[in-house]
Amino acid sequence: MNDFELAKQKGVHGVEAKGFMSYSTDAKGKINVDYDATVKAMARDAALQTPVSVGVPSVFTTFIDPQVVPILFAAQNATKIFGEERKGDWTDNFFTFPVEEYAGNVTPYSDFAENVSTDVNVDYPTRENFLFQTVIKYGDREVGLAAKAKLNVVSSKQQASAYVMAMAHNKFALYGVEGKKVYGLLNDPNLNASISPISITTGSTANSTWTAKCAAQPEKTANIVYNDINKLWAEISKNNGGLVDQNSRIILAVSNTRAPYLTEPNSFGLTAMTMLKQSFPNIEVVQLPELTTTAGEMLYMTVPDLFGIETGICAFSEKYFLGRVVPEMSSYKQKVVGGTWGAVIRRPSLVATMLGI
């Protein structure tokens, strides 16, 4: 399977696109476009095609600059918590997934008794497909002026559109779409309510934020931070009936403004991160700036998979879909489309949040 076919499966394709421009990769994986080879390939292909009515060979609308790919596939913060997966495409309106709940009981045996049974309750939660777009526009003179400075303005605008689309995917995975059945990992209505951090009273003042607690007892910073995170873990453990333990894979998300507290040592030289690694050997820490909210600083913890089933996914229908290039009198425009289902959290009990740190 070539790179372009793989990209199509990942949701990167276009109406008339048939391949990437000629490129190579260096030892660090950086993509370098060979524009000379691309121009020669275009010239060969153009000679074999019938010109379109506007006098532009269609080959000039059928290549995608591969520089778009590393930007688009760069890890966004939301996908560091739940991985991303393509579900359907832009022609699908709804996405549903079955959820089973086992129910039943037992009773003492009798040859004639049948008053207790076992059953399965099945539900089908549904999400909507939200499509969004941006437009790339460039003029003949604009391209010519940029070329004098050895700049490829069309490629740069494609890269800019990839960045804009990636940021939008990240936003919808975090917050969903208001007014639609598209929820984010921070506001899914099925999540349990956030719990409060441990409060410490100093004199007559009760402190709950890390800033206040650590300022009052700086020598205990690591212990203060560790105790709040351990309380968050206790919430997940309580809600899952012993199905998870401290050796499970755990993802802890913290804002970039609170992350430094994880490396502050206590009076014994231990940091909260060191203590966490000792207690939870498979814990992973992700910085998520969006956890700085108007309601306060938040911690987000999840066990990302259990019994081979992912707790949640950042689901999309189209990652980066390029429409046809539309020629105007002295300019061109091209639509770029993305589609999202938001963050689909299959097991909300495996997620716990703490607000007010």
List the helices and strands and how they pair.
Elements: H1 3-9, E1 12-14, E2 19-20, E3 23-25, E4 31-33, H2 35-47, E5 63-64, H3 68-72, H4 77-81, E6 84-86, E7 94-96, E8 99-104, E9 118-123, E10 126-128, E11 130-139, H5 140-148, H6 153-175, E12 200-202, E13 205-207, H7 210-216, H8 221-239, E14 250-254, H9 272-279, E15 283-287, E16 292-293, E17 296-302, E18 305-306, E19 309-310, E20 312-327, E21 331-345, E22 351-355
Parallel strand pairs: 1-20, 2-5, 6-20, 14-15
Antiparallel strand pairs: 3-4, 7-10, 8-9, 11-21, 12-13, 14-17, 16-17, 17-22, 18-19, 20-21
Helix pairs in contact: 8-9
Account of the 3D structure:
Pfam families: Major_capside. InterPro entries: Major_capsid-like (IPR020049). This is Phage capsid family protein. Helix content is 27%, strand content 31%. With 357 residues, the protein is of the alpha+beta class. It has 2 domains: 1-65, no CATH class; 75-100 and 126-357, 2-Layer Sandwich (hypothetical protein PF0899 fold), CATH 3.30.2320.10. Strands 1, 6, 11, 20 and 21 form a 5-stranded mixed beta sheet that branches. Strands 14, 15, 16, 17 and 22 form a 5-stranded mixed beta sheet that branches. Helix 8 (221-239) packs parallel to helix 9 (272-279). Residues 46-60 have low confidence and may be disordered.
CATH architecture of the largest domain: 2-Layer Sandwich
Distance between the termini: 48 Å
Radius of gyration: 26 Å
Q: By CATH's scheme, which homologous superfamily of the largest domain applies?
A: hypothetical protein PF0899 domain
Largest sheet: 5 strands, mixed
Structural class: alpha+beta
State the CATH class of the largest domain.
Alpha Beta
Average pLDDT = 86
- Summed up, the helix count is 9
**Percent of sequence in beta strands:** 25-35%
| Number of DSSP E strands | 22
Assign an overall shape: globular
